[in-house]
Amino acid sequence: KNEVEQSPQNLTAQEGEFITINCSYSVGISALHWLQQHPGGGIVSLFMLSSGKKKHGRLIATINIQEKHSSLHITASHPRDSAVYICAAHNTDKLIFGTGTRLQVFP
Amino acid sequence: NAGVTQTPKFQVLKTGQSMTLQCAQDMNHNSMYWYRQDPGMGLRLIYYSASEGTTDKGEVPNGYNVSRLNKREFSLRLESAAPSQTSVYFCASSAQGGTEAFFGQGTRLTVV
Predict the structure, then answer these.
(1) How far is A73 from chain B (nearest CA, A)?
(2) Residue of A2, A33, A94 with shortest CB distance to B58
Protein backbone atom coordinates (compact mmCIF):
# COMPACT_ATOMS: atom_id res chain seq x y z
CA LYS A 1 0.00 0.00 0.00
CA ASN A 2 1.34 3.42 -1.00
CA GLU A 3 1.95 5.88 1.80
CA VAL A 4 0.06 8.54 -0.17
CA GLU A 5 -3.06 7.52 -2.04
CA GLN A 6 -5.06 9.69 -4.40
CA SER A 7 -8.49 9.24 -5.88
CA PRO A 8 -9.76 9.19 -8.48
CA GLN A 9 -6.91 8.38 -10.86
CA ASN A 10 -8.76 9.92 -13.79
CA LEU A 11 -11.53 12.46 -13.85
CA THR A 12 -13.47 14.05 -16.66
CA ALA A 13 -15.82 16.98 -16.21
CA GLN A 14 -17.87 19.46 -18.16
CA GLU A 15 -16.91 23.10 -17.94
CA GLY A 16 -18.49 24.69 -14.90
CA GLU A 17 -18.65 21.56 -12.77
CA PHE A 18 -17.36 21.39 -9.19
CA ILE A 19 -14.36 19.07 -8.91
CA THR A 20 -13.05 17.20 -5.87
CA ILE A 21 -9.79 15.26 -5.71
CA ASN A 22 -8.95 13.29 -2.59
CA CYS A 23 -5.66 12.43 -0.91
CA SER A 24 -5.09 10.08 2.03
CA TYR A 25 -1.75 9.51 3.69
CA SER A 26 -0.43 7.09 6.28
CA VAL A 27 2.78 8.84 7.37
CA GLY A 28 3.42 11.65 9.79
CA ILE A 29 3.64 14.95 8.00
CA SER A 30 4.82 18.47 8.61
CA ALA A 31 2.84 19.70 5.60
CA LEU A 32 0.72 18.48 2.70
CA HIS A 33 1.35 19.85 -0.77
CA TRP A 34 -0.91 20.06 -3.79
CA LEU A 35 0.90 20.37 -7.10
CA GLN A 36 -0.22 20.79 -10.69
CA GLN A 37 1.53 19.24 -13.68
CA HIS A 38 0.52 20.46 -17.14
CA PRO A 39 0.88 18.44 -20.34
CA GLY A 40 4.19 20.17 -21.02
CA GLY A 41 5.49 18.46 -17.89
CA GLY A 42 6.31 21.37 -15.62
CA ILE A 43 5.25 21.06 -11.96
CA VAL A 44 4.02 24.02 -9.96
CA SER A 45 3.03 24.24 -6.34
CA LEU A 46 -0.62 25.13 -5.71
CA PHE A 47 -0.90 24.85 -1.96
CA MET A 48 1.05 23.87 1.08
CA LEU A 49 -1.03 23.33 4.20
CA SER A 50 -0.64 21.83 7.63
CA SER A 51 -4.13 22.52 8.97
CA GLY A 52 -7.53 23.86 8.00
CA LYS A 53 -8.24 25.31 4.61
CA LYS A 54 -6.64 27.51 1.98
CA LYS A 55 -8.20 29.23 -1.01
CA HIS A 56 -6.66 30.69 -4.12
CA GLY A 57 -9.05 31.87 -6.79
CA ARG A 58 -11.26 28.93 -7.77
CA LEU A 59 -9.09 26.41 -5.95
CA ILE A 60 -9.67 25.34 -2.35
CA ALA A 61 -7.56 22.87 -0.38
CA THR A 62 -8.57 21.36 2.94
CA ILE A 63 -6.86 19.03 5.33
CA ASN A 64 -8.07 16.92 8.26
CA ILE A 65 -5.02 15.99 10.31
CA GLN A 66 -6.87 13.52 12.54
CA GLU A 67 -8.24 11.61 9.56
CA LYS A 68 -5.02 12.01 7.52
CA HIS A 69 -6.99 13.23 4.57
CA SER A 70 -6.87 16.22 2.26
CA SER A 71 -9.07 17.39 -0.59
CA LEU A 72 -8.54 19.73 -3.50
CA HIS A 73 -11.66 21.40 -4.86
CA ILE A 74 -12.03 23.34 -8.10
CA THR A 75 -15.11 25.48 -8.43
CA ALA A 76 -16.53 26.45 -11.84
CA SER A 77 -14.02 24.24 -13.65
CA HIS A 78 -12.57 25.39 -16.97
CA PRO A 79 -10.74 23.56 -19.78
CA ARG A 80 -7.52 25.31 -18.74
CA ASP A 81 -7.75 23.40 -15.43
CA SER A 82 -6.98 20.20 -17.38
CA ALA A 83 -3.80 18.83 -15.84
CA VAL A 84 -2.49 16.19 -13.47
CA TYR A 85 -2.97 17.12 -9.82
CA ILE A 86 -0.56 15.59 -7.36
CA CYS A 87 -0.60 15.53 -3.60
CA ALA A 88 2.60 15.09 -1.65
CA ALA A 89 3.22 14.51 2.05
CA HIS A 90 6.17 16.31 3.55
CA ASN A 91 7.72 13.73 5.87
CA THR A 92 10.89 14.90 7.68
CA ASP A 93 13.13 16.13 4.83
CA LYS A 94 11.34 14.28 2.06
CA LEU A 95 8.26 14.65 -0.10
CA ILE A 96 6.26 11.46 -0.67
CA PHE A 97 4.06 11.73 -3.74
CA GLY A 98 0.74 10.29 -4.72
CA THR A 99 0.41 8.93 -8.26
CA GLY A 100 -1.65 11.90 -9.41
CA THR A 101 -5.16 12.54 -10.69
CA ARG A 102 -5.51 13.29 -14.38
CA LEU A 103 -8.29 15.86 -14.87
CA GLN A 104 -9.82 16.70 -18.23
CA VAL A 105 -12.39 19.46 -18.42
CA PHE A 106 -14.38 19.66 -21.65
CA PRO A 107 -16.10 22.78 -22.98
CA ASN B 1 13.46 34.91 -11.96
CA ALA B 2 15.09 31.62 -12.95
CA GLY B 3 13.99 29.51 -9.94
CA VAL B 4 15.19 25.95 -10.52
CA THR B 5 17.06 25.30 -13.76
CA GLN B 6 17.72 21.80 -15.06
CA THR B 7 19.84 20.78 -18.01
CA PRO B 8 19.53 19.11 -20.42
CA LYS B 9 15.80 18.93 -21.24
CA PHE B 10 16.17 15.84 -23.40
CA GLN B 11 18.85 13.17 -23.66
CA VAL B 12 19.24 9.85 -25.38
CA LEU B 13 21.96 7.52 -24.11
CA LYS B 14 23.19 4.13 -25.12
CA THR B 15 23.34 1.42 -22.48
CA GLY B 16 26.55 1.76 -20.51
CA GLN B 17 27.13 5.44 -21.26
CA SER B 18 27.45 7.94 -18.45
CA MET B 19 26.03 11.41 -18.04
CA THR B 20 25.40 14.10 -15.47
CA LEU B 21 22.15 16.00 -15.03
CA GLN B 22 22.70 19.51 -13.77
CA CYS B 23 20.43 21.45 -11.43
CA ALA B 24 20.83 24.95 -10.05
CA GLN B 25 18.56 27.14 -7.92
CA ASP B 26 18.85 30.84 -7.26
CA MET B 27 16.53 31.06 -4.24
CA ASN B 28 19.16 30.41 -1.56
CA HIS B 29 17.38 27.18 -0.61
CA ASN B 30 18.98 24.70 1.75
CA SER B 31 17.26 21.53 0.54
CA MET B 32 17.53 20.08 -2.95
CA TYR B 33 16.08 16.88 -4.39
CA TRP B 34 16.23 14.60 -7.39
CA TYR B 35 13.12 12.64 -8.39
CA ARG B 36 12.20 10.35 -11.22
CA GLN B 37 8.72 10.08 -12.68
CA ASP B 38 7.54 6.92 -14.43
CA PRO B 39 4.14 6.22 -16.00
CA GLY B 40 1.58 5.06 -13.44
CA MET B 41 3.83 5.88 -10.52
CA GLY B 42 4.25 8.94 -8.37
CA LEU B 43 7.48 10.87 -8.32
CA ARG B 44 10.06 8.83 -6.47
CA LEU B 45 12.96 10.31 -4.56
CA ILE B 46 16.40 9.30 -5.79
CA TYR B 47 18.64 11.43 -3.56
CA TYR B 48 18.29 14.57 -1.55
CA SER B 49 20.50 17.11 0.12
CA ALA B 50 19.16 18.78 3.25
CA SER B 51 22.00 21.30 3.30
CA GLU B 52 25.21 22.16 1.55
CA GLY B 53 27.74 19.38 2.10
CA THR B 54 25.23 16.63 2.92
CA THR B 55 23.49 14.08 0.71
CA ASP B 56 21.20 11.17 1.56
CA LYS B 57 19.66 8.30 -0.33
CA GLY B 58 16.00 8.36 -1.17
CA GLU B 59 13.70 5.58 -2.25
CA VAL B 60 15.46 4.55 -5.49
CA PRO B 61 19.18 5.47 -5.30
CA ASN B 62 20.71 2.44 -7.05
CA GLY B 63 22.58 3.33 -10.23
CA TYR B 64 22.89 7.01 -9.34
CA ASN B 65 25.32 9.30 -7.58
CA VAL B 66 24.92 12.93 -6.57
CA SER B 67 27.07 15.90 -5.73
CA ARG B 68 26.02 18.99 -3.82
CA LEU B 69 28.65 21.19 -5.39
CA ASN B 70 27.64 24.28 -3.43
CA LYS B 71 24.43 25.72 -2.06
CA ARG B 72 23.12 26.47 -5.56
CA GLU B 73 23.96 23.30 -7.45
CA PHE B 74 23.00 19.65 -7.08
CA SER B 75 23.97 17.24 -9.84
CA LEU B 76 22.82 13.69 -10.57
CA ARG B 77 25.18 11.26 -12.28
CA LEU B 78 24.43 8.02 -14.07
CA GLU B 79 27.71 6.12 -14.24
CA SER B 80 26.54 3.31 -16.52
CA ALA B 81 23.08 3.97 -17.93
CA ALA B 82 20.56 1.13 -18.16
CA PRO B 83 17.22 0.98 -20.01
CA SER B 84 15.48 0.85 -16.59
CA GLN B 85 16.69 4.40 -16.03
CA THR B 86 14.57 5.68 -18.90
CA SER B 87 12.39 8.22 -17.13
CA VAL B 88 11.63 11.87 -16.60
CA TYR B 89 13.88 13.39 -13.96
CA PHE B 90 12.94 16.38 -11.84
CA CYS B 91 15.11 18.49 -9.61
CA ALA B 92 13.44 20.44 -6.81
CA SER B 93 14.44 22.74 -3.99
CA SER B 94 12.92 24.12 -0.82
CA ALA B 95 14.08 26.49 1.87
CA GLN B 96 14.01 23.56 4.29
CA GLY B 97 11.95 20.44 4.92
CA GLY B 98 8.27 21.30 5.23
CA THR B 99 8.31 24.45 3.14
CA GLU B 100 7.11 25.04 -0.41
CA ALA B 101 9.00 23.09 -3.05
CA PHE B 102 9.96 24.47 -6.45
CA PHE B 103 10.58 22.20 -9.41
CA GLY B 104 12.73 22.34 -12.50
CA GLN B 105 11.19 21.72 -15.92
CA GLY B 106 12.33 18.11 -16.04
CA THR B 107 14.77 16.06 -18.13
CA ARG B 108 13.38 13.37 -20.39
CA LEU B 109 16.03 10.64 -20.53
CA THR B 110 15.86 7.65 -22.84
CA VAL B 111 18.37 4.83 -22.55
CA VAL B 112 18.49 2.52 -25.55
Answers:
(1) 20
(2) A94
Q: What SS3 state is found at B25?
A: strand
Q: Which residues contact B64 (CB under 8 A, 6 or more apart)?
A: B34, B46, B47, B76, B77, B78
**Identity of the residue in A42, A45, A98 whose CB atom sits nearest the CB atom of B42:** A98
pLDDT one-digit tens code per residue, B13-51 = 999 999 999 999 999 999 999 999 998 788 899 999 989
Residues sharing a CB contact under 8 Å with residue A79, sequence separation 6 or more, in sequence order = A15, A105, A106, A107
pLDDT of residue B97: 64
Chain B, nearest residue to A102 by Cα = B40
